[in-house]
Amino acid sequence: MNIKSTLLASAIALMPFAAAASDLTIGFSQIGSESGWRAAETTVTKQEVAARGIQLKFADAQQKQENQISALRSFIAQGVDAILIAPVVATGWDEVLEEAQDADIPVILLDRTVDAPDDLYLTAVTSDLVHEGSVAGQWLVDDMAGADCRIVELQGTTGSSPAIDRKTGFENAISGHDNLEIVRSQTGDFTRSQGKVVMESFLKAEGGDNICALYAHNDDMAVGAIQAIKEAGLKPGTDIKIVAIDAVPDAHLAIANSEMNATIELTPNMAGPALDALAAYLADGTVPPKWIQTESRLYTAADDNQAIYEVKKGLGY
Amino acid sequence: MTRSPFLKRITPQLIILAIVLLLNVLVLPDFFTVKFQNGRLFGNIIDVLNRGAPTALLCVGMTLVIATKGIDLSVGAVMAIAGATAASLVVEGQHWTTAVMGALAVGALCGAWNGILVAFLRIQPIVATLVLMVAGRGIAQLITEGTILTFLDQGLIHLGAGTVLGIPTPILIWLSLGSFAAFLVRRTALGLLIESIGINEASSRLAGINSRVLLLCVYVVSGIGAAVAGVIVTADIQGADANNAGLWLELDAILAVVIGGNSLLGGKFSIVASLLGAMIIQSVNSVILLSGMPPEFNLVIKALLILAILVIQSPKVSHIIYILRASTPPAKVDRPNPAKELKR
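ok -> C-alpha cells follow
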C-alpha cells in the first residue's frame, strides 16, 4: 500500500513531465536483490520510469554476469530506446557494449562503473564514497565546534572499497582539526551484530565516558552499536554522538527517537539523474558528462525523520 | 594420589584458556574487572561468556555429530532459518514463547533432514549437510522477504539482550543446556553408544545398537542447538538478518570441537572440553578486539593463535612433553613420611 501511495504521490508531482512523455521503451538490467538497498533501488527505478510515462523492460540477473549480458542482447534485439544497467562486475563488458553501440542504443551505468572504454556508454551515475565519508567528517567538525572529541570508528568489511573510501573521506575531513581524534577503529563487517559486539569492546577498552562520538561506515553497524551503548547505561545520541552512512529507514527512525545524530544518504535513486540525462540527450543531443555524481545528502534531527521513515519503509529496504 | 580422569581430560584446554586470558590481561590490565552497572554485570569477562554463547550452543551438537564420525556444516544456516522464523512469528503477533517453540521445531526439522540424508540414505555427512548450508540462507531470506526483520517484543529480546539476576541470559542458557547435555551423555549409556558408532558403526549395529535412530537423533540435537543459538543472536540485535546471522559460525563450532581435543575421526568425546574450546575461541576474539590493532591484522592474529594452540595439542608435541617429563628425575619433595610418623 505504501508503494502505491508513494507511486501516486510522485506521479502527481511529475505530472507536467509525464504529459510530455514520449512512447519510449527502456531496458533495465538489475544485478539481483542481494541487499535491502538494492531492492530499494529497483523499486525507485520502476517509480521513476513510470512517473515519466516510459515503458520499462526489467531483467533480474540474480548476481550473474552471463544473465546480464543475455538480458542486454535481448534488449538490443527488441530494439529498446536506451538501456540502464547496474553491472555486477567491472570487466568483460566490451563486446556487448559494442553491440549496443552498433545498434545505436545508449547505455547508462547505474551505481557501479565498468572497465571498458568510456565511449562505449553514455554516462555512469554513481555515488562518491570518499565524498560520503567527508560529509560525515564535516558534520562532526561543525557539530563539535572546536570542542575536544575522542572518536571511535566502526569500519566496513576489511579491504572492501566502501570501507577504504569512507574511511579516507572521513579522515580527510577531520584532518587539521586537532580537537578531533580517532582513538579506536575496528571492523564491524557492515552487520548489526558485529557492530554491537565491537562497540561493546570499545566501551570497555576506552571507558564509555571517554568516547565522545561514533562514526560507522554504515547504518546497520550504528544500529547495533546503539543497543550496546544503551546496555552500558549511556544515552546514544547524547552521551555519544553517532554519525553513519546510507540513510536506511531504521537510521531515520533512530534519529527521530534522538538515538542517532546524523546519516548521509546513499540514494537508491540512481535512475532519476540517469533518465534526466537521457531525456536531454534524446531531445537535442546534449552529451552528459561521463560521470554523474549523485547527491550525498546529510540528514540530521532537523529533518522530519519520522515521515521519511514511513516513506522509505515501503521501498523494500 | 591420582587425578580424576575427567580433570586430566580437560587439563590442556584449561591451561590454554588461562594463557589466552592472560594475553587479554596483557592488552587490557583491568580485563577481569566486573562492575554492576545499569542492572547488569558489566565487564570483559562477561562479554567473553556472553558472546561465546552461539558457538558454545553449536559445539554441543557438533561434538556429538563429530563423535559419530560425521560433521554438520549446516548449523550456521539453521541459525538464520530459526532466527527468521522466531522474528516473523512475533511480528505476526504471536506470543514470544510460541515463536521460540516454532524456531526450535524448525531447527529440529532441519536436523532431521540432515539425519535422514546421513542415516538412512547413507550420504556422506559433509555433502549431506552442505545441501542445507547452501540452501538454508535462501530459505531464511524467503521467510524475512529479503529484509532485516525487526521486532520490539520484549520477551524475545530478553533471551538475547536481557539479564537474569544481572547475568546476561545467553550465558545462563548455554551453561544450563551444555551441562545438561554433558550430564546426560555421561550419566547414561548414551555417550558410550554414540562413541561406538563413531569407532565402528557396523560392529556396533551387530552388537544391537540401533545406530540409524541414534544418528538421526544426534543431527536433530545439533539442529535444535543451532536453533537456540539463532534465536539468541536474533534477539540480541532485535532483528533477523538472514544474510549474516551465524555466517561462518559452523567453522568456529568445528574448531571449538577440535580445540577441545576431540578427533574428527569420531569416537571418544568430551562436551565440556568442546565448551572450553568455544570459550578459548571467544577469548582469542576478545584479544583481537581489545588490542586496538588495525583490522587488517584480525585474521592473521587469530590464525597464529589458533595455530599455536593446535600445535601445542598435536600428538607429536605432547609426546615430546611426555618424554621430557619422563627423563627428568622427579623433584625431591620434602614431605613428612606418613609411615615414619606412625612409627613415632
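Chain B touches chain A through 31 residues (CB under 8 Å).
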